[in-house]
Design goal:
The protein is of the alpha+beta class. Helix content is about 25%, strand content about 20%. The two termini are about 30 Å apart.
């Protein structure tokens, strides 16, 4: 439990967006009999490892969803920072925080010490490219007695939220090689230990009996990476799986009502236009593309009602955003495409995305563009997308995944130095608006500034919000304790069992 003293210190500093969904019940430790004899869980994930399970990129979420890794903090159901490896914390001054550690051990048997935590965070700061949670942020971590002192280059009022990012998971010293690359096999702190990885096909996890939060009820997790959403749903129906993430909306009706779990999330699907090179370097053509898109067709048709039409970077699940939303200003006047050729790319791990791209292709061609469509598996798409190899990309992105802070996604995705800037956007006005928002501590004022920055981003037409998603998870009838999370950071925990 968070102490009254900690709440008093941090209450005015930590953002807590109110969401329309909350975590499902299922945490807590098991009794000795259950812990000893619990069945293994069979889980299918939609995304295979894209970066050899490095904790610093997209694979970080795979590790957190499977209960392998943890950071100093976590997000609670309302999006506020909650204790994880840090039992409590306090802010010493505008740039320095002190995090008191709980007693815990790494899965290799070594102790979670202040020195080990500081070293792990230092490795994250030196990673190339930098983790999205550290976009535009510099920090140093040092052992301070039984605690870790973290100092940021500039005031960072949401540091406890930032440290909850799956990409800032704490690993033991044995995880790192001479080049600083991190291997999470047997070196993390979560309730399940990664013991074997079979490329992009499967992974094996065993229960870590010395987990500080109590023994998990399941004895392990057998993971299959299945990009085909229809195959995931079919395997759940036939009893081959206990949990299948990201069930396609087209398959929802084939599942029994009791096994179909719908969760409102902060995930939005957007059309990202390459603002640095190619045809969409011209703001007038970006405006023409934005004007050509009819989002209502996508929400009602492709998503069959499991999504809402795009209204901005933040969707309805972030309930405070709508009342603060600002209209974009300074948009360029739409130009005539006149047969301009563009390449539109997306990935098929989320089966709706190729359908979305096909509808967009038709809408853009009707407006005068000539569109070549390219669909890949995500791990084969991301690096090219980040290098600006495509003119346009359809991407599903959980806007509060990296830190829980609404400003963080703007910094990582839409600023000149952003580490996940698929739109290749570099706009002085956007950078200025984001920088202003990053320096504000008061919750309401930070939210207002985030919406001002959102309007600045939308004003460039480098991103066209398409839909805001509700995620369907397939859960076997005998399974309980699955962690259905609006931030999509958790799935399997100590209380998940069958």
């Amino acid at each position: 439990m968070t102490t009254v003293r900690r709440r008093h210190i941090l209450g005015s500093l930590l953002l807590a967006p109110l969401l329309t969904a909350c975590f499902a019940s299922g945490g807590g430790s098991a009794g000795d009999g259950d812990a000893k004899d619990g069945a293994r869980l069979r889980v299918a994930l939609a995304f295979p490892p894209a970066e050899n399970l490095s904790p610093y990129g997209a694979d970080a979420t795979l590790l957190s969803r499977l209960g392998v890794t943890e950071g100093l903090t976590a997000l609670d159901a309302n999006g506020a920072a909650a204790p994880a490896l840090a039992a409590s914390w306090r802010r010493e001054n505008d740039r320095t925080w002190l995090f008191a550690l709980r007693e815990a051990t790494f899965q290799d048997g070594s102790a979670v010490t202040p020195r080990a935590v500081a070293a792990s965070l230092t490795h994250a700061t030196e990673a190339k490219p930098a983790p999205a949670a550290l976009s535009g942020v510099t920090l140093t971590a040092k052992a301070a007695g039984t605690a870790v002192r973290i100092t940021t280059g500039a005031p960072d009022p949401v540091l406890p939220l930032r440290l909850s990012s799956p990409s800032l998971a704490v690993l033991s010293s044995k995880a790192y090689d001479a080049r600083g690359a991190a291997d999470p096999v047997g070196t993390a702190t979560g309730p399940f230990e990664l013991t074997k990885v079979d490329g992009s096909t499967s992974a094996t996890l065993d229960r870590y009996d010395d987990y500080w939060g109590g023994r998990a009820q399941a004895s392990g997790v057998d993971v299959r990476f299945i990009a085909d959403g229809t195959a995931r749903a079919s395997a759940l129906r036939t009893g081959e799986l206990d949990i299948a993430e990201a069930v396609p909306v087209a398959q929802a009706a084939t599942l029994d009502k009791n096994t179909r779990k719908e969760t409102a999330t902060t995930r939005s699907t957007s059309l990202l236009l390459n603002a640095r090179s190619g045809p969409f370097k011209d703001a007038r053509l970006r405006a023409a593309a934005r004007a050509a898109v009819d989002t209502s067709v996508l929400a009602k048709g492709v998503y069959e009602g499991y999504a809402d039409p795009g209204v901005g970077i933040y969707g309805p699940a972030v309930t405070w955003a709508e009342g603060k939303r600002q209209q974009p200003a300074g948009r360029a006047k739409a130009g005539a495409p006149n047969g301009t050729r563009i390449t539109l790319a997306t990935y098929d791990n989320r089966p709706e995305l190729p359908e979305v791209a096909q509808v967009l292709k038709q809408q853009l061609e009707k407006a005068g563009f000539k569109v070549a469509l390219e669909v890949r598996e995500y791990s084969r798409l991301e690096s090219d997308a980040l290098r600006g190899k495509f003119d346009a990309v359809v991407l599903a992105r959980n806007t509060l995944l990296d830190t829980g802070d609404p400003v963080a996604v703007l910094a990582s995705d839409y600023t000149c130095d952003g580490g996940f800037n698929i739109a290749q956007l570099c706009d002085k006005g956007v950078d200025k608006a984001v920088a202003r928002a990053e320096g504000i501590a008061d919750t309401a004022e930070r939210q207002d500034a985030a919406m001002t920055a959102e309007a600045a981003v939308l004003g460039t037409d480098a991103v066209v919000p398409l839909v805001h998603q509700r995620i369907i998870t397939g859960v076997g009838a005998s399974v309980s304790g699955v962690l259905l999370d609006p931030y999509e950071r958790t799935l399997v925990g100590t209380g998940t069992r069958r």
